Amino acid sequence: MKKITKKNILLSLLGVFLILQVFSIDKSLPETIDSEDFFKMENVPLEVSSLLRRACKDCHSHQTDFPWYTNIEPLSWWINGHIEFGRENLNFSKWNSYDAVKKRRKIDECIEVLQKRRMPFKSYKWLHDEAKLSEAEYESLILYFQSIR
Question: Is the pTM above the cut of 0.70?
Answer without folding.
Answer: yes
